[in-house]
């Protein structure tokens, strides 16, 4: 390979990497990051805590010590934290890929109160910065970039 061919190959790879980073389609970096983050944050509901440098368990709920019957005749005492009867909160996590970035969010109006905590609700974070998520995202992007740079 000549220096000219090498330079031309590098320029081509740079164009492909830029396209990958900005592509909002199914194979672009924003979508890959969005899908990875959405899956990771949804799993926090199964984990019953937020995974960041180890599991940060959520505070327990009062219904476990004061069980009541739901409209469907079931007790809510055994139900997992933040699941509710409909699981609307865990199902609301979504992402919006944008050129070169992605936004991961919940469109449920009460999500911030649980995620950040309030005077009446303890913090039960399910979305946010996570070292484990960062490693997962880097691994996914590294795998895809290696395919591009071959």
List descriptors:
two-stranded antiparallel sheet; 150 residues; alpha+beta; single chain
Radius of gyration, whole Å: 21 Å
Oligomer: single chain
Number of strands: 4
From the N-terminal CA to the C-terminal CA, the straight-line distance is 15 Å
Structural category: alpha+beta
Number of helices: 5
Give the integer mean of the pLDDT values. 90
Strands in their spatial order, largest beta sheet:
1-2
Strand content: 5-15%
- The helix/strand order is HHEEHEEHH
Tell me the major beta sheet.
2 strands, antiparallel
Which word captures the global form? Answer: elongated
Strand and helix layout:
Blueprint: H1 3-22, H2 29-47, E1 49-51, E2 55-57, H3 88-91, E3 93-98, E4 101-106, H4 111-116, H5 131-149
Helix pairs in contact: 2-5
